[in-house]
Amino acid sequence: MTTPEALELVSGERMRRDLFLLSSAPLPFRTVRYTRPGSSVCSLREVDGMVASCLVEAGFRVSETRQRVQAFRCDRGKPLHHWYARPEPTDPWYDAFNVEGAREGRDLPGEIIQLVSHKDSMSWIDSPGALDNGVGTVANMELARVLAKVPLRRTVRILFCNEEHTPWTSRAAAESAARRGDHILAVLNQDSLTGKSDRDAAQGRRTHAVAYSTEEGRALAHLLKRLHDAADIGLDLTLVHKERVNDDDGMFIQAGFRTTVMNVGSFPYADSQYHLEGDRPERVDIDNLVRSARLVLAAVLALDAEGEAALRPQG
């Protein structure tokens, strides 16, 4: 299968369906604090089952790692979008899980392309969390489905973690990978894809920012730019340096995996409903999401075909 053929397999309808399932009905929120009437597990654990089923159907080997987390407290006296507050030591602890799928490559299984997205919504308010980060979750689920149809030379691994509770569970996954001595070629974190300003939304701009914090990440960002232009994906694409080594991509950088980027809708993040109750799936630009998912897929396919050579400057 050629790369253009693979990119065409990305389905907006499947991602829309999954997004509404995860951020409207049946799951209005994805937190350890909320359990639907009639359910025996919290809504975040229900997400784990949906993600694991998708990965199994796509031929990925699935593993789960239990983590202990707390919900953030809410402090509405803080600036808008930043109402989260550290929990007290006496606040309850909950079980949460990293869910990871791996599909081994046939030729070089020890070389790993790592995809990441956090699957939880805000733990301090009842927000649907469609853009933060339902979109990253459904994009990585869709990439698993498409990659099921592609013969892989190298291993693709997809981590679904938790970032809106504390501590961030991507840190545990990254540190475990470092202890094992995993050879991770690149890490691509999908967080808040298509999140943009109201003005950009009104103008119909299809925004995408590739944020990097290291020189190795810069090389990966430039690979995405070359692939975007070559495939005419049609995004308003920007490459930006992210000074703070944070978010789930930062956890991998801190663990020693420096060829890492975050794919996000805008940077600095411009969504007016960021971390608010209005972060609803109806606001998501599905066409933008399809194009963003295609860009990440193009990067996975290039890295799978060429390995580290794909990261070298051209010309």
The largest pleated sheet is described as: 8 strands, mixed
Strand order of the largest sheet: 1-4-6-5-7-10-8-9
| SSE pattern, N- to C-terminal | HHHEEEEEHEHEHEHEHEH
Class computed from helices, strands and strand pairing: alpha/beta
Helical region count?
9
Indicate the proportion of strand residues. 15-25%
Helix content: 25-40%
Main CATH class: Alpha Beta
Outline of this structure?
With 315 residues, the chain is an alpha/beta fold. It has helices at residues 3-8, 12-23, 43-57, 130-147, 170-180, 198-202, 215-231, 247-254, 286-306; strands spanning 61-69, 73-74, 84-85, 94-103, 108-118, 154-161, 183-190, 207-212, 236-241, 260-264.
Produce the secondary structure layout.
Blueprint: H1 3-8, H2 12-23, H3 43-57, E1 61-69, E2 73-74, E3 84-85, E4 94-103, E5 108-118, H4 130-147, E6 154-161, H5 170-180, E7 183-190, H6 198-202, E8 207-212, H7 215-231, E9 236-241, H8 247-254, E10 260-264, H9 286-306
Parallel strand pairs: 5-6, 5-7, 7-10, 8-9
Antiparallel strand pairs: 1-4, 2-3, 4-6, 8-10
Helix pairs in contact: 2-4, 2-9, 3-4, 4-9, 5-8, 7-9
